[in-house]
Every structure is written in C-alpha cells, then in structure tokens.
Design goal:
about 400 residues, alpha/beta, Aspartate Aminotransferase, domain 1, Aspartate Aminotransferase, domain 2, 7-stranded mixed sheet, globular, binds pyridoxal-5'-phosphate
Amino acid sequence: MGGDDRIVYLDNAATSWPKPAGVADAMAAFLRDSGGNPGRSGHRLSIAAGRVVAEARDAVAEALGVGDPLRVAFAANATAAINAALFGVLRPGDLVVADGMAHNAVARPLTELGRMGVSVKWIRCGRDGSIDLAHAEKLVRGTGGRAARMLVVTHGSNVCGSLAPLGELAGVAARHGATMLVDAAQTAGIEDLGLDSLGDAMVAFTGHKAMLGPGGTGGLAFSRGADIGRVRPLVRGGTGSASDSEDQPAFMPDRLEAGTANGPGLAGLAAGLGWIAGNGGRGAIRDRELRLTEALVSGIAALPGAAVYGPEPGRPRCAVMSFTLAGWSCSELALALDERYGVLCRVGLHCAPRAHRVLGTFPDGTARFAPGPFTTEADVERAIGALAELAAEGGRA
Ligand SMILES: Cc1ncc(COP(=O)(O)O)c(C=O)c1O
C-alpha cells in the first residue's frame, strides 16, 4: 500500500499518510453502527460507542506503557494536552524548565505563562539537537532553594529527529521533586515510552502521526507515580457521571474529559494502533523507518551543496531528518520536489523556531523528510534522485 503511485509522501512528521485502510472503515462503522453518545445515555448505541472509546483508551495505554487505561485522558490533539498540563499545573511564582528543541505547542503556552508570573528557563541543546543534561540538572535544581515545578521535554524533535533520553531526564526531575511533561507528538505510538517507569510524569500524545489515527485525536496520559489531583481542569462540563454535582468530577478520565468525546476519531485511532500491533508492532515499524531515515541522511549528505542537520548516524533518533540544498530556498525546493517529482515534504520552521536557532537554521529553516510505515526503499531512492538533479541544476535562490 503506497497511496498514489505518483506521490512519494515524506511528510509523516506533519501527519501520517496514508492511513491503514481499517482506520477509515472503523470511523465509518462507528458513525453507522454505534453512533450514540459514549458514556451518556444508557441505550445500546451509547453503550456500543462507549465500548469503542474504551478500546481506544486500552490501546493508547498499551502504546504509552500505562498500566491503568483510566490514566489516559483524551483531547483534540497534543497541543490541547500540553496546554491542559501546563496551565493545569503551573501557578505564578513557579519555575518551569523546558528544552531548546521545543515546538510552539510548548513554547507559546510557556510564553503566555511567563507573562502570568511563571519563571521559564530553557535548557541548552547541542547543534545536533541533543539536550545538555548537566544544564538541565542545574536549571531544574533552581536557585535559592526554589526547584522547578515542572520539566518539559520534547521527546522526538519534529525538526531534526533528535531523541531525548527520557530515563535520564526523569532522574533529573525526580532528584528535585519536579513533575515531567513529555511532548511525545512525534514518538507516541512508535517508541516504547514506558510512561509508568518515568516516576512522576505526563505524556502529551497525538493520534494522527505515528499512531496512524485521524486528526482530532490525542490526549494526556499519566504515569503510575503522577499526582493527577494537582492538574486543575482547564475545561469543565458534562461527563455523564456524577450529574448531581456542579463540580467537575475529581476522578479520571472524567476530570479532564468534559464534553462529548470524538467517537469516530477514537474508533479510527484504535484501528491505527491495531494495525501497528498486527504488523510487527512498534519496534519492527520503528526499525524499518529508522533504516529509511538513515538512508535519506547518508544519501542526501553525499549530494553537492547539501547540509544535513541533526544527530550523527547511529545516534538515537526518530524518523525525521532535515536538510538544506545550496542555491535553493526552502520554498523553491518544496515546490520543485512536489511539482516535478511528486515528492511531498514540509519546509521552513516547522512551528519550532527555537529548535532552528539551536541548529543554526533560523530564520530560513530547512526541508524536512519523514518516512512512515508505508514508505518504501524505492520512495527513498526517488527522493534522493530528485534532489541530485536539483543539486546539479544549482537552484534559483
Ligand atoms: C514536537 C511536536 N509537538 C507538538 C505538536 C503538536 O501536535 P498536534 O498538532 O497534534 O497538536 C507537533 C506537531 O507537529 C510536534 O511535532
């Protein structure tokens, strides 16, 4: 299954495509066969819908390494989950520490929190996107006896594919009594996150990337050691539970799930995760995608005028790589790749200006290739071949 034959889709970091056929089927089946409101009315269609949502919750909990699925709260996407965690926990006077590869889904809420009296500190990163762990420790320890309330970590960089060492960072957070928020938008569904082993931690995930589900799905999941009671709900409303009270239920997931769930979306998400489980599992899919990514890195690095950014070959990474080509502006390059070769990618700053400052590619940005489970070796060869021709032309920038 490779989608349209004329297309080489290398934009899986933005959203995965194509989706497994079962995703659209499951969404249609939800609307056709079990379209009641999950968790509300007690009739058979509501119960059927609730079952689909529970299946999705079970599948997500398994994917994230969470023993109790009720510690997974669904949201519209990773951005909503990150906002729920940041605004739910941080108060004026708190210190929050985040890494320099942050996406704007983290940086923009933190900027706003900074205006509201939260102190925000940024961990230095190397030119390969790696986090300076000693600097992380120093910032989280804080000064004057005031340690950080929260450490925010970009697990996989959506710009260059660098992968943060979650175990070590969880150790930093634990030593200073901070909670850790992991932005796993790029990695949830494909990396083994082992959330329950990370101490006091939360993971923001999105459903439409490596989990292979549709847009409009994602959420916030909590480790066994997390204090969920500390997260003040941002959105309050109906849950179908404890309806005699006008207070938001304190228990999960209702605490963080006011309003009707995205039933069709969650049906698709369960199908996406089911496809991963039935096709070798996360590890096999990840290894294959990483081989394709390394092939892109070495093939593109060998082209005249090309510069590749991010981890050295063999270093921990996810299936995202970034490059520039001398003589070509990013936008001209994307246009030529799309119009002349059917190679689809994303160029520019990828909603992560801070990461580009780290890599030295601000403000022009980079071109980004991100293979997915349906990318073939032929796709990779075609993309490198297209770039070789464009490199020989010398571009118009
Ligand atoms: C690292 C990172 N964080 C957060 C997000 C936001 O994800 P979503 O669009 O699902 O909210 C993205 C999406 O590109 C991302 O790559």
